[in-house]
Amino acid sequence: MDDYYDIDAILAEQQRIPSTLLVDIPGLGLDEQNGGGDMQANSTVELPYWIAETLAANDFIELQMPKPFSARMRRILQASCTNVNFHTLCPYFYEFGLKLAVTFDEPQLNDLLAEVYRKRLELILDAAQRADSQNMAEFVSQLDESEKKVYILAKQSTQSIRQWQKGQLYRLQMADVLKAFRGGGHKVTHAFPLLGSGHEHYLY
């Protein structure tokens, strides 16, 4: 795995990939289709990517491109990727797709992922800006997991900008140390901390 502590990387490698066995594999135990029994050469099974990649590297199996990345699906995505339910298609579409591009040595898949991401990003950012006035639950439920993170960040940024425009995000207050100075007879003018987002900036 690329990063043992990256939950998205772990879940992306749990995605199943169709594979054809090149040799008999007794008691593989990971295939739910045959209850963990012996697997015969030339049979086709779907295995989690993390184990399939290792078996393929040792010439035990031959990998096949998963349906979400098939030639037919690529044509659909190129034609209208914004109308596709990515959560149903593959909840870790981009991360899994990047792994497959390396495994199958297909730079054109990388190009497709970048093109699709760019087109859908415009839709996601637009939805995030309208989130306060419209119910976006159904829209968000159809996003890939990485897209959901982008949506949440964009929504939070939009809300912060609106709060700032209304003067709710930052407030000028006198620092306690300056209050003490004034209480002790010291004259200090134009010295205030700018409070916001946990940071203090003093203006003199």
UniProtKB/TrEMBL annotation:
The biological processes this protein is annotated with in GO are:
mitotic DNA replication initiation
Q: Which GO terms describe its cellular component?
A: GINS complex
InterPro entries associated with the record? GINS_A (IPR021151), GINS_bundle-like_dom_sf (IPR036224), GINS_Psf3 (IPR010492), GINS_Psf3_sf (IPR038437), PSF3_N (IPR055221)
Report the principal subcellular site: nucleus
Q: Where is the GINS subunit domain?
A: 70-164
Q: What are the entry keywords?
A: DNA replication, Nucleus
Q: What range(s) does the DNA replication complex GINS protein PSF3 N-terminal domain occupy?
A: 5-56
List locations, semicolon-separated. Answer: Nucleus
Report the sequence similarity comment from the record.
Belongs to the GINS3/PSF3 family.
The record describes the protein's role as: The GINS complex plays an essential role in the initiation of DNA replication.
PANTHER family per the UniProt record, alphabetical: DNA REPLICATION COMPLEX GINS PROTEIN PSF3
Q: How does it assemble?
A: Component of the GINS complex.
Q: What is this protein called?
A: DNA replication complex GINS protein PSF3
Species annotation: Dimargaris cristalligena
